[in-house]
User: What shape does this take?
Amino acid sequence: MIDTHSHLFLEDFDEDRPEVISRAREAGVTHIFLPNIDRTTVKPLLDLCETFPGYCFPMIGLHPTSVHANYEEELQVVEKELAASKAYVAIGEIGLDLYWDKTYEREQQQALKQQLDWALAYDLPVVLHCREAFGLMLEILEPYRITSLRGIFHSFTGNRDEAERLLQFSRFLIGINGVVTFKKSTLPEVLPLIPLERLVLETDAPYLTPAPNRGKRNESAFIKYTLMKVAEVYGRTSEEVSEVTSKTALKMFGMLK
Assistant: This one.
């Protein structure tokens, strides 16, 4: 199994990070991909990847909820990191979030466009966060459909129409996490519209903990519950779903031709 989206560098894991990694390995997780948030998380992110080389892999980007009046300064950090290191496997986590606050909507759009351009310049995939901004996100992405831009629509929880619209971006994958296990989730009805080859699995740890552990801190080992639910929805074995989604993820991050 591959966890394509996990924030194990956050303070939530400071007390037991080695144990969290150990449990992930025991559960069968072979790779963990780590999206950055802002300048404050770059060092802990890189420290974690240095401690567990070949297992934890870094992304660099500015999360939309960290876009404020000083967003250009934050983007300079991203730009310097991209120029200085070839270790980054993607630009992320980037996107739009108008759920909490719309104050910096224009700045979020500018930050997103800049980072999409960097993804093309550095030939890296993007990992996209979108909350309460679906139409606007697609509007921004539309001009890039004729480019080589590729990536993952992280934490998809949408309806059938939204799934169909995302699938039109042929170089993009759809990330599924613990939400699919929630009792009120509509994802089990929507997922059959999406070819299994277009899916990747993720945790978004420490958030969005799948059943039966809802209410607890999420961690990469819990991806097995998401895998089991996805397998059930597709009528496939967990082994089949794990093999397909893992190959897809490794191809996206440039680790498998």
Q: What stands out?
A: The chain has nine helices and eight strands. The beta strands are 2-3, 31-34, 56-58, 91-97, 126-131, 151-153, 172-176, 199-201.
